[in-house]
């Protein structure tokens, strides 16, 4: 299905799952971190190798079943993806640095600490853990010593937002706040506004339930 038409440049926990459902409602097939939880045919090692050797990555193959991609690991590759798909539209989802940090703390960071056993190369989820550890801010989110450096983590988040603004042409970029809704998104994509409420998903409880289900696979 590649080439990608939409590249998400917003970090996880900025409304990316709600945006995933919104884009799917508009007719796209959207890649998101949750795809690893729902699609067992995906190989985390492929994305880990892309992180190590991005200039050698076969992006068309990695995203072959998708025409939109959001969240980690995609956001880590956004510059490389924009080179490969120069006409793609880029969507940057944002929220305040303080609320983002707290959301990460209650979800990705917390569950990373609870899955210490996944670090072992013999664990069935090791490949996923290794990929997540490195693509999510190169360990800053999972590693407790790094994550506790709140000011530094928040600065990296804010610096990323500015980096996207600097590197993506203004006419290809849409910046949307958490929970903003359909109107500007649909105008940006040239789509009709659906006659349903904008999705609101993946709160802390829902994240926990998804992660538990993935843990039991």
| Low-pLDDT segments | none
Structural class: alpha/beta
Termini Cα gap: 27 Å
Q: Can you write the helix and strand succession as a string?
A: EHEHHHEHHEHHHHEHH
Level of helix content? Answer: 40-55%
Task: Please outline the major beta sheet.
Answer: 5 strands, parallel
- Backbone shape: globular
How would you describe this structure to a colleague?
The protein is an alpha/beta fold and 217 residues long. It contains 12 helices and 5 strands. The protein has helices at 16-25, 34-38, 44-52, 59-62, 71-74, 78-84, 97-114, 126-135, 144-147, 150-167, 183-189, 204-215, and strands spanning 6-8, 30-31, 68-69, 89-94, 173-177. It has a 5-stranded parallel beta sheet with strand order 2-3-1-4-5, sandwiched between helices.
């Amino acid at each position: 299905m590649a080439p990608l038409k939409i590249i998400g440049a917003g970090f996880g926990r900025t409304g990316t799952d709600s945006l995933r459902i919104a884009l799917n409602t508009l007719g796209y097939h959207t890649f998101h971190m949750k795809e690893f939880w729902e699609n067992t045919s995906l190989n985390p090692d492929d994305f880990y190798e892309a992180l190590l050797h991005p200039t050698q990555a076969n992006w068309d193959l990695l995203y072959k079943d998708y025409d939109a991609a959001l969240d980690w690991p995609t956001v880590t590759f956004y510059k490389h993806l924009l080179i490969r798909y120069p006409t793609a539209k880029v969507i940057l989802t944002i929220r305040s640095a303080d609320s983002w940090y707290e959301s990460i703390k209650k979800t990705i960071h917390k569950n990373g600490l609870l899955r210490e056993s996944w670090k072992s190369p013999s664990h069935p989820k090791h490949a996923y853990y290794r990929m997540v550890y490195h693509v999510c801010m190169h360990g800053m989110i999972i590693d407790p010593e790094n994550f506790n450096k709140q000011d530094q983590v928040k600065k990296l988040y804010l610096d990323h937002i500015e980096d996207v603004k600097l590197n993506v042409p203004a006419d290809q970029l849409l910046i949307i706040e958490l929970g903003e809704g359909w109107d500007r998104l649909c105008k940006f994509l040239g789509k009709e506004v659906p006659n349903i409420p904008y999705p609101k998903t993946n709160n802390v409880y829902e994240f926990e339930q998804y992660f538990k289900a993935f843990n039991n696979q």
